[in-house]
Amino acid sequence: MFRYEPPLRDIHFVIHELLDAESALRDLPEYAAWDRATVDQTVEALSRFAQRILQPLNASGDREGCRVEEGGVSTPSGFAQAYRHFVEAGWPRLACAEQLGGQGAPAVVFSAATESLYSTNPGWTMYFGTARGAYECLLAHGSPEQNDLYLTKIVSGQWTATMCLTEPQCGSDLGLVRTRAVPAEDGRYRISGAKIFISGGDHDLTENIVHLVLARLPDAPAGVGGISLFLVPKYLIGQQGLSLECNGMSAVAVEDKMGLRGSATCAMNFEGSVGWLVGKPNEGLRNMFVMINSSRVGVGVQSLGMGQAAYDSALGYARDRLQMRAAGGAHRPDLPADPIIVHADVRRMLLTQKAHVEASRMLVYWLSLELDREHAHPDAAVRQVAGDWVALLTPVAKAFLSENAYAVANLAIQVHGGHGYIRDNGVEQIVRDLRVAQIYEGTTGVQARDLLSRKVLPDGGARLRRLLDMVHEHARSADDEFTEVLVRLCAELEQLTAHVAEAAARDADAVGASGCDYLRVVGHLVCGHLFARAARLARSKLSQASPDPHYAAKIATARFYFERLLPEAWSCAQTARSGLSSLSTLSERELFI
Amino acid sequence: MFRYEPPLRDIHFVIHELLDAESALRDLPEYAAWDRATVDQTVEALSRFAQRILQPLNASGDREGCRVEEGGVSTPSGFAQAYRHFVEAGWPRLACAEQLGGQGAPAVVFSAATESLYSTNPGWTMYFGTARGAYECLLAHGSPEQNDLYLTKIVSGQWTATMCLTEPQCGSDLGLVRTRAVPAEDGRYRISGAKIFISGGDHDLTENIVHLVLARLPDAPAGVGGISLFLVPKYLIGQQGLSLECNGMSAVAVEDKMGLRGSATCAMNFEGSVGWLVGKPNEGLRNMFVMINSSRVGVGVQSLGMGQAAYDSALGYARDRLQMRAAGGAHRPDLPADPIIVHADVRRMLLTQKAHVEASRMLVYWLSLELDREHAHPDAAVRQVAGDWVALLTPVAKAFLSENAYAVANLAIQVHGGHGYIRDNGVEQIVRDLRVAQIYEGTTGVQARDLLSRKVLPDGGARLRRLLDMVHEHARSADDEFTEVLVRLCAELEQLTAHVAEAAARDADAVGASGCDYLRVVGHLVCGHLFARAARLARSKLSQASPDPHYAAKIATARFYFERLLPEAWSCAQTARSGLSSLSTLSERELFI
Lengths: 593, 593
Description:
Chain A is α+β, with helices and mostly antiparallel strands. Chain A is 56% helix and 12% strand. Chain A has a domain at 445-583. Chain A contains 21 helices and eleven strands. In chain A, the strands form three sheets. In chain A, strands 3, 4, 5, 6, 7, 10 and 11 form a seven-stranded mixed β-sheet that branches. Chain A has a two-stranded antiparallel sheet with strand order 1-2. In chain A, strands 8-9 form a two-stranded antiparallel sheet. In chain A, α18 (510-542) packs antiparallel against α19 and α18 runs antiparallel to α20 (568-578). The radius of gyration of chain A is 24 Å and the shape is globular. The two termini of chain A are 48 Å apart. Chains A and B meet through α11, α12, α13, α14 and α15 of A and α11, α12, α13, α14 and α15 of B.
């Protein structure tokens, strides 16, 4: 049975050595107090919480799942108690604004600390994770009264919160939202409609739940420009505290999902529920999108955390499981067979996992630091540059890392063989839990369109130029074994971008035809660059007396990434280039007969 | 909710047009009666059975699973009744020898007909599928008495059968088998030991189960040369029919698996169970391997069947689901949004599924026909050539097709978005059911080693030469849009093979380092070749008056395969070539710190 050990050494390597977050945060007045010791203490403390409290509930939470009962949705045994511990320890406050009672941690610390939650119990963590999006929305657009009444409770963790977007007829296309909001007395509204896929829509962890609901006002225009955002609490606040009666809503079902079964994904009915407008009428979608980048980076953190758990588990098994002899002769003649880690194919699988996980950590932490710079740097020009990085890299981190982590999780099953296909070893659960990361917060296809249509093509390629310049500059100055490949891949990406831009000018559908493969090329360039930087740094440390063995391993992992994983970028570039040509020769009816 | 429609048109295309199975079977005296009409009736009849009887039990079988109860293992509701229908209709007899009461169908018909069983209910089909392996073992090595008493019952389906190989300490490495067989009275043996992962080890479908068990005789040498094969029935045959008492065995647990949950995968204890030797002592492993090729081709059929179901489901959903407008403007202004099939990225996913499924069908049916030739051609030289094809292509079909089908199933979730992640739409079940296809009957890594170490490298590349010659010859004679790529890929594979052979001569571990990527290169060459042949054939039919629209779609699908899927072969060749270089720079302890 798998036991989680937080990968503190690699977390430190990325935060302190690669990113030098302490210096970076010193330039951000709001976060200047987050020195190295504070960061390390925070990450380690939450990792230990995850290890001690959450990990033991992971398999049982999956088995038990959630149920709709008389009084509402019940979560798996132990979840509510773990949540109380979490609140008592003050963890919900971690990355919340200090004026609301938060601890004001920067995103880079939040990402590094919460990685462990997803490694140990992603189903449980969803209750906390979805509240985060609502927190950001309200922080940006809530009225002082809303913030005082509701947001402070979300900050403390006393209440959780949800985002109620999806409806049966609309997921990616929120313009089709039908839920209605009718003005009522005292500036209130009455909300009615059906929402689905609401994470934490109901549960027994907290006494109240704050729903942020997308709905249409009676006179709203059709489409995305007619959607408003409403705050709809499960229980209204009355003179004597919380009302005893539910505010006209109910979780009519808990979805029977492939994974994340400890997380109550609810189908909700609102029937005249009392709500308040958040922000201005018809600006709901725009207001909601303040949280889109951080929630997408959050999917990167999930992918990283679950990938790390899958890798750990596979590595442990590969060291213990005895099966066959090494090709070149027995390594352990004292045992009936060699541990399977001696087989090159098993090492290939483990290194694939290791390289993907370490690349994810570099990308996610870096991107989190750019979120911090965008939010808190005193210089507007620096904020602008950071915002460009966030804009460009967020869809890449969301889609590329969730796809890679899924491969990592599937490799954990493969390393375990038949023992990975049964539930006891916990790795098939990681596959099931991770599968949705390619879907929610915008599918891979949605991310790919965002990357090309909104981030790369419109500004004449300025954001992409910045990426290419950075890669070039480092590669040339390093002039090592990775330089030639990176320079060549930059050229390939540049040509590919021009090719896609031209195709898209002729036929807008070309973006969809090339997007997913294009995104993988960008992902490999970014991760290849990060590994080249990490390897250069590690090489510089090798000359130290008795250097930390982490450095030699980092260089070897970087080499593996370039030799074994990055080559996929070339075939993706080729398929991205083929664009619409094999997708549109026949009509849909003629093709799919 | 998904309804299965058997893909009869494409089945006919492959069997009759591409392979011309009727002529091929006419040359095999044993199968000469299987003319086109008989083949079509058989395939259609079993497909209808699958559609009517099995498909309705697929989701419920997954939900209910199997349970160990007082009297043995109980299967999901309806499974036993469906099995009775199956036996009454005579289906277990389909591909069994006529002298044993079978219908004597060739493998190509068996594959085409059973594809539908895996499309509709893979969990149920496992009970039938595992009996198949035992049938082949006994047919080859059973004594006349064993065949009379047991094999005829397996042929009729009255009893099922299992293969008891795996033990807790050994899966891929059967040399570690510990189960013991002690000689007893009357040429009997007493079998004692623990077996795991026994598909259909116990169930309530039939009154008896025949186990073929690998075990060691007291004086057996260590390793694979000391393993013998025993026939161990659940109930012994006495004077008054079946004994009332179980033959010293019990299913102590049903594994809680990721998928195939309708299939009872049992942990079995044998405690002095009475058994009989099958074949000679210490030749158990060799004797068992008579079924290895057909059971591996069987995994190809499973992958094909489940892939087809995943594709059908995604296609149906993509036509119905309305979400956003086509990039170039509304296709269905009469509806609130366009069906998602209008989006290029969705068409890309559907075509990826379609191309993989059609490639699988061509490869699996062709390989099945070679199994038939190897088995039944009167000319020994033809049998030899067919045997070479079977040897070379079986590991490719098993590994390449199971990996591709898993991608196809995952794309079905992706096309469904969040609706694919919940159980209602049935596609997440396909992912769970399919995951084990890359593991059982030899993992992908085991197949890759088999391909390189046993099939390609030892005979100086003669078998591979035959493949390259065939591809070359067709490509040159066709001289169409696919020729250049295929010729280039042949050259690449030839060089890669020389490269790997050289590396393996220096370090045997190099086979493991390159094997999985090497196998994918071979898989793409084979499937590319088959698509080129299919497209050439289809082009020749286009000149007919009002040609069947299947032909134009086939050409478009072939083009998609070459433009979008086959390019992966180049990056796989590159990673295969890198071999051990990034896997062995550091020791295991230094690398995985």
